[in-house]
Amino acid sequence: MSIWFHEKLDLAALTAGSAHCMPGFVGIEFVEYGDDWIKARMPVDARTKQPYGRLHGGASVVLAETVGSTAAAMTVDPSKFATVGMEINANHIRPVKDGFVFATATSESIGRTTQIWSIRIEDEAGKLVCISRITMAVISTDRA
């Protein structure tokens, strides 16, 4: 059974909606989704590398928060509720020097007032790069 508020997610619209803010600046694109997960990719390039030529840990967190936050927002009625981040953590596992990384957010708990999402970031070979968890608050739109 699907967890999404709308039957279908428009991945192109999700990508375009962030074109003029942080996710767009680092090249994040939504690429796929299933009943309880959503996936995006981000290039490992000059925008997302640290001075040593490897993927910057902060860029991984930007990717994780983007995918987790978007996932949470897609589970609620946007005319009544908004989802906002409360906490995020990340464990960086292995470096990436080029190509793309892919982040998949999967729901762990979708409650009335909070949500928890796990985000796995993998390289193009499917090797784990970073594992993250985000906690989201669900608030009424009159508070957003």
Oligomerization: single chain
Instruction: Write the CATH architecture name.
Output: Roll
**Secondary-structure element pattern, one letter each:** HHEEHEEEE
The counted number of beta strands is 6
Description:
- The chain has helices at 11-16, 22-25, 57-73, and strands at residues 29-33, 37-43, 81-92, 100-110, 114-122, 128-140.
- It is of the alpha+beta class.
- The protein has a single domain, classed as Thiol Ester Dehydrase, Chain A.
- A 6-stranded antiparallel β-sheet has the order 1-2-4-5-6-3.
- β5 and β6 (128-140) form a beta hairpin.
- The longest helix is centred in the middle third of the chain and has 17 residues, at 57-73.
- The model has no long low-confidence stretch (mean pLDDT 97).
